[in-house]
Amino acid sequence: MLIQVRASSKGGEMMAILDSVKLRIGLTDTVQDELLSDLIDDATARVLTYINQDGIVNQTVPDSVAWVIKDIVVKMYNRIGDEGKQSGTEGNVSNTWESIDLSKYADALDVYRESSQSRRSGMRFV
């Protein structure tokens, strides 16, 4: 099963990601659904760009890495209003935001990259 790139399709897998993200951030209504769908589109585009950087063009993200999309969307949502900040303090509460860097997910995503498919296991002498 694959995740469709277009959030506007509101397909089953897209709704599953949306529902999962809403659960993770504690939303129970539909007020933020359009924003979250847009964030899901952006996160999906980032993952596809990473996977496709070797020249192949996948239009879908494998469902086995849907957790990456969810993780990125939650981070993006939590940063709204604090874009560009690395940390902030209000009273006794201090927050630190990590950048959204896909290299953190490389182990999961590289499996779907063309260059990783052509690599041979073992030693190489150059």
Structure in words:
With 126 residues, this protein is an alpha+beta fold. Helices cover 44% and strands 11% of the residues. The chain has helices at residues 12-25, 33-51, 66-78, 106-109, 114-118; strands spanning 2-4, 60-62, 87-90, 93-96. The strands form 2 sheets. The protein has a two-stranded antiparallel sheet. α1 crosses α2 (33-51), α1 crosses α3 (66-78) and α2 (33-51) packs across α3 (66-78). The protein is globular, with a radius of gyration of 17 Å.
What keywords describe this structure?
single chain; 126 residues; alpha+beta; two-stranded antiparallel sheet; 44% helix; globular; disordered N terminus
Please outline what is shown here.
By secondary structure, this protein is α+β, with helices and mostly antiparallel strands. The chain is globular and about 50 Å long. 44% of the residues lie in helices and 11% in strands.
